[in-house]
Amino acid sequence: MSSSVTTPIEAEDATSAVTVPRRRRRDSGDEGDTRRTNWWATALIAVCSLTVLIPLYLAIAVALKTPAQLAGGTGFELPWPINWGNFAVAWERTAFPQALLNTALITVGSVVFTLLTSSLVAYALARNLHRPFFKGVFYYLLAALFIPFPIIMLPLVKQTSLLGLDNPGGMVLLYTIYGLSLNIFIYTAFIRSIPLELEEAARMDGASTFRVFRQIIFPLLMPMNATVGILTCVWAWNDFIMPLVVLTSPSDRTLSLAQYVFQGQYNTDYTVAFASYLMAMAPLLIVYIFSQRWVISGVMRGSIK
Question: What's the pTM value of the predicted model, to 2 decimals?
């Protein structure tokens, strides 16, 4: 007569062999709803997105017509024969090379100084928002977003004239200062999402605050730098009202001011004007086509983190 003894390991194996793991039943209905494509909404968004091509086509069509062709139609007709001479006339009447150089210098200078100053100020505020003084400065800068530019336009003209800032250098300084509020708002949320452990490890190795910002924080801000840089570039390139009231020398005028020569008291040379608009839009359009994804990705990263 033999007796069998069951060890704990054998009992566990037997239990696992008998017990069949239950599979979680997938609710195909709910999951299908989340993955289903709303084709009506997609088609509506696509149609609304394509409407931007209408003014672009109109600008190209008008720029390639003669005044007689424009006067004899609605403007949407195909230009035939094509008049390429409008671009040559616009190049000469606007002094395009000089205006393009002035606009490029102001835009590049504004982008560079904006990235350096806004990121540095935002870093100082983001790491000290628990202190009343820095929190007050942060809200003070945000309050500037609600002040319309026409309210401060006349005092600005007086101050720039007294300080000798009515030139391209003054324009770079103004764009840097007036973009500070929005840029700090964009930077601060992203900087606060960066772990403090990275900075603490660098400080333990003897790094100063500026070195921590230069070697650790600033490289991590590349998505935000791209977003702020593109927004500043578009603003400085296309702005009309600030150069109009600040710049005094005709040789310092930007592309937007140079194109104002086509606006007369009684008539407007639309064909040549639209040719100059396309010439001024082409460099910025090329830059934006290759870099617009950084705007969306930068904003999304800041909102997710």
Answer: 0.77
Amino acid of residue 75: G
The rounded distance, in Å, linking the Cα atoms of 274 and 282 is 12
Distance, in Å, from the CA atom of 268 to the CA atom of 254, rounded to the nearest integer, reads 20
CA-to-CA distance for 198 and 113, rounded, in angstroms?
26
239-293 pLDDT, tens per residue? 988 998 888 888 888 988 888 877 765 567 788 888 888 898 888 888 777 776 6
Q: Which of 277, 267, 237, 275 is nearest to 254 (CA)?
A: 237
CA-based Rg of the chain, rounded to a whole angstrom? 30
User: Please, what is the Cα angle at 284 between 283 and 288, to 5 degrees?
Assistant: 125
* pLDDT tens-digit map of 58-107: 888 888 888 888 887 777 788 888 888 889 988 988 888 999 999 999 99
Taking the C-alpha atoms of residue 179 and residue 126, their distance in angstroms, rounded to an integer, is 18
Instruction: Report the C-alpha gap between 198 and 227 in whole angstroms.
Output: 24
Residue 135 and residue 188 in contact, taking contact as beta carbons nearer than 8 Å: no
Taking CB atoms within 8 Å and a gap of at least 24, the contacts of 189-193 are 189/302, 189/303, 189/305, 190/221, 190/223, 190/224, 190/301, 190/302, 190/305, 191/122, 191/123, 191/126, 191/127, 191/217, 191/221, 192/126, 192/129, 193/302, 193/305
The alpha carbon of residue 107 and the mean position of all alpha carbons in its chain are separated, in whole angstroms, by 13
CA distance 59 to 52: 11
